[in-house]
Amino acid sequence: MTQTVAHGRESVHSPPRLRSDAPFFISLALMGGLYLLLIVGMLLADVSYTSPNHLLDALRSPPIRYAIWLSLISCSVTTILSLWVAVPTGYLLSRWQRSGRFRALRHVIDASLDIPIVLPPLVIGLSLLILFQTPPGRWIERQTLHWFGTPITYAIPSVIIAQFAVAAAFAVRTMRVTFDQLNPRSEQVALTLGCTRSQAFFMVVLPEARRGILTAATLAWARALGEFGPILVFSGATRMRTEVLPTTVFLELSVGKIESAVAVSLLMVACALVVLVIVRVFGSEDFGKGLTP
Amino acid sequence: MIRLEDASLRAGAFSVSGINLEVPTGEYGVLMGQTGSGKTTLLEAICGLRRLHTGRITLAGRDVTRLSAAERGIGYVPQDRALFATMTVRQQLAFALTIRKWRRADIERRVSELATRLGIQHLLSRGIANLSGGESQRIALGRALAHRPPVLLLDEPLSALDEETRIQMTDLLRSVQHETGVTVLHVTHSPAEAQRLAQQLFTFENGALRQRQLEREAVR
Fold first, then answer.
1. Is there a domain that residue B176 lies in?
2. pLDDT (tens digit, 9 = 90+) per residue, B53-95?
3. By the 8 A CB rule, do A200 and A191 touch?
4. Would residue A42 count as lying in a domain?
5. Is residue B11 part of a domain?
6. Which residues of chain B approach chain A closer than 8 Å at the C-beta?
7. Which of A126, A167, B63, B163 has the most crowded CB, counting CB atoms within 10 A?
């Protein structure tokens, strides 16, 4: 009965005419637009606060040049170390998940690998500092001093370790997502064609993961470039020694040289933008899943 | 030949047991069953991609139950073809031969022979982007046959093809099997495919495998 009535009504009236969708989309866009405005506003403010002269002055200053140099080198080393850890870890986690065995243990390991992402940066720095005060830590420190002529704490190795501690976690996540998305069938076909697991990995899986590897590398690099908290605690902020670009911004600010701090910030913004573009161009949208801190 | 004796399989909530199957050497076996009946799982077990819970697998006279996929000497074409995304068609066809460290000239000869037989010479230098369903299927078949395996395992090889391509592929499968003498196990849910190709027909029904009597003499 109800149905008949409903049918009757529909046939009498014209089909339900909804109001325009425009207000809905406009209000969503306004909400999102505010945030975009904030980002653009910050960058524009930076640009307006500085001048080419400030930038040139910054580039001429030996401590800042040292910081640029150290940042570039340490980030690159960190990236290599991160990939070195992330590719095997991501692959193992992904295949482990597919096998479905020891699920609880896998969850614990999976969660542990995210600790550096959720831990406050200062806590990471402090933990590293304490780690290298323990007997095994001191032993490693003595060995480094003996073989490489440099200690770890408050020296360049500590910068790389601090960057690596956080950047590797992001690289592992990226590689994990990458391997999850690859079709496991091609690896299986390779096995049936006579490959060992390692041949299948190097000949089939790794080439198919190359975009993910590039994304992981750029993310690790960008993450390392912005690392400050752990470095401040674990490496100190000594000019011409453990000063990386974020340290420079901090040091320049602390002595009131805002123009110089802004100039260095803009240098880092430029680096970050280049990295973002690389990730957007080479990585598919899915690689970004769950990668934001 | 392909022989399963008292095989049982478990995969998550799915399990089958008491599977006995034999495809004699050089014959075309078809395994039919509804989606989700466990055909693919069984095929994976024969490939060595999945462990049997109990039972024995014999391929070409060799007990392969405990051997890895690589040692079983089979050709496998999965349902989604799973072509290697970063390789050219030539590299895909040469893959099993490269792994077996064949000489370069021998590889080239074999690849060219396969490509001619399968009608894919014009694709050799290409990657796999934008291939048609029939083309990918031919490449996957060539990749599986390159090392002249005695056993060929096909998972729904004709699904997702248009009618005309399906007929062409059916003819191709039949003639390739005839020429090479390879023992085939072809998994499908289509009675029409089974009718056209099977010399031995098996069906999965309610978790049990039955051998069906063919209603006609296989056309050869």
1. yes
2. 999 999 999 999 999 999 999 999 999 999 999 999 999 999 9
3. yes
4. no
5. yes
6. 12, 44, 47-49, 68-70, 72-76, 78, 80, 82-87, 95-96, 99-100, 143-144, 147
7. A167
